Amino acid sequence: MHVVIEDICTGCELCIEPCPVDCIETINIEKEKSDNIRNNSKEFFNYTKKNRTQKRKKLKNNTDLNLEVTSIINERIKNRNIDKSSNLKELQIKTLTQDLKQNHDFTDEQISDFIDNNEK
């Protein structure tokens, strides 16, 4: 059964008519209980509002921190002068050298000759 607190009720009785099972009852509550209920409700509302505010602040702080870290990383990426083609060539030579030594028993001189003859 639904209960309407009389102190909060304005007496308009708009809630009674749409109720499909006629289960709304108005009751009298002592002023102290009513005040206590209102204070508790207000306190919980304030807690909820405070929690939402703290959550927004935390999200904003995290966003600011993430933006700062991102800008630092982007700046470092812009600042590095990497010659990709020379690095790729060095990596290929290193891999080829290891492969020729391990799988084909090439000497250092043979490897050097092989690389020199096949470079374009």
TrEMBL record:
UniProt keywords, alphabetically: Iron, Iron-sulfur, Metal-binding
Entry keyword annotation includes Metal-binding: yes
GO molecular function, one term: iron-sulfur cluster binding
Domain 4Fe-4S ferredoxin-type: 1-29
Family annotation (PROSITE patterns): 4FE4S_FER_1, 4FE4S_FER_2
Pfam families in the cross-refs: Fer4 (PF00037)
Keyword Transmembrane helix: no
Record's protein name: Electron transport complex protein RnfB
Organism for this UniProt entry: SAR86 cluster bacterium SAR86B
Lineage of the species this protein comes from: Bacteria, Pseudomonadati, Pseudomonadota, Gammaproteobacteria, SAR86 cluster
